[in-house]
Amino acid sequence: MIGREQQGKNVIVRATLLLFIIMGFFSMMAYLHTYNTPAQLLHLPIVINTWTFINATRVAYRTMQSGGVTERIALDGIEKGCNWCEAHPDHCDFTVGYGGSPNEWGQTTLDAMVMWGPTREVGAVGYMKRVKPAISVARKVMERTYHTILVGDEATTFAVEMGFEEEDLNTTRTAEMWREWKAAGRKPNFWKGPHNSTQGVTKRKEMNEKPEFGRWNHDTIGMVAIDQQGNVACGVSSNGATWKIPGRVGDAPIVGSGAYCENEVGGAAETGDGDVMMRFSPSNRVVQMMKGGMHPKEACERMVAEILRYYPNCSGAIIAVNKQGQIGAAYMNLPNGFPFCLQNSNMKDAAIITIKD
Ligand SMILES: *[C@@H]1O[C@H](CO)[C@@H](O)[C@H](O)[C@H]1NC(C)=O
Ligand SMILES: *[C@@H]1O[C@H](CO)[C@@H](O)[C@H](O)[C@H]1NC(C)=O
Ligand SMILES: *[C@@H]1O[C@H](CO)[C@@H](O)[C@H](O)[C@H]1NC(C)=O
Ligand SMILES: *[C@@H]1O[C@H](CO)[C@@H](O)[C@H](O)[C@H]1NC(C)=O
């Protein structure tokens, strides 16, 4: 005989089981919703990129909308979009492409990366000289070699072998900047103490205690795109930090830092003080957080909060988009907030979105 108490317990057990089944059903639905949302809900294609470089957004969007150049449509969007900044550095704060961010020797060098979400293929160039469309060379590294990153003069050699033109990246603008910087005692710089270099001796009293990172010194175009087929690509192009020590490679060509994307989840890209930010693999981390179901905005905010715990003065920003077409961004130590660009098929034109505290 089953006592009243026992029956009561059975009811509770059954109710609990039922509850678990219902909860399981809903969490499975939520899971399926996260990973299999139909394309028509997403307003694809979609592209986001850092800063106000809205023509790059438009070019990326139009490239995808018109069906791309190759079958990797989102990647074509990334390449053509970033190419726009590389060809028009004056419209991209001189932080991408030629004619900007000279190093201690007055040279402009380029960093770039692309990633294809369906296969996780990556190609990148670092500290590349004398070739303008760096992101296109990065794509060649990905598609024509088994390597991931080529750097320096040999990246240039590779680019020339691939048919790219060799050109000066310095201009009268960078030459003038460099002269002024030398005349002002080579401040700021990235050394931690007095040092001798080929440029001469720098004494303690001539040093900037902290290098100045900010809007104009240190940024990048970082871009994430999802094409009509739901494929995700991401990429970055940058001319690095102004007055960098020759040889310095920034975060832009470092996969997981400059950008990262997974077809099942979405993608993220970053901009800012790359020397510090690359220590956290922020773009990869944001994508992994989104994979766990986190909204892109919250993922970016958590990542920025973590960096600030270790480097309270680090300046920069992260943008992200998930497979549902939800976007998010977060920034740190940018006094005027952080602008980024968005275009999707629900919008007549690209828009600049500025986040501020
Ligand atoms: C975008 O490109 C057009 C020319 O195609 C140019 O007139 C305009 O100034 C550019 N806008 C920005 C914000 O760079
Ligand atoms: C760029 O720098 C190189 C090496 O210093 C120099 O030969 C060249 O004339 C410069 N080009 C421009 C446009 O200033
Ligand atoms: C730099 O070189 C000078 C001699 O030219 C030497 O006295 C000094 O110790 C050197 N400083 C450093 C930091 O190496
Ligand atoms: C951050 O900047 C403040 C103000 O310039 C300075 O006092 C502080 O030492 C800096 N902190 C670090 C960790 O660099």
Automatic annotation (TrEMBL):
InterPro entries xrefs: Ntn_hydrolases_N (IPR029055), Peptidase_T2 (IPR000246)
Entries under Pfam families matching the protein: Asparaginase_2
Binding positions for substrate per the UniProt entry: R248, V249, G250, D251, T271, G272, D273, G274
Keyword field: Membrane, Transmembrane, Transmembrane helix
GO molecular function, one term: N4-(beta-N-acetylglucosaminyl)-L-asparaginase activity
TM ranges: 12-32
Domain of life: Eukaryota
Catalytic residues as annotated in Swiss-Prot or TrEMBL: T220
SUPFAM superfamilies, alphabetized: N-terminal nucleophile aminohydrolases (Ntn hydrolases)
Site location (Cleavage): D219, T220
PANTHER family per the UniProt record, alphabetical: L-ASPARAGINASE, N(4)-(BETA-N-ACETYLGLUCOSAMINYL)-L-ASPARAGINASE
Designated name of the protein: N(4)-(Beta-N-acetylglucosaminyl)-L-asparaginase-like
The species this protein was found in: Planoprotostelium fungivorum
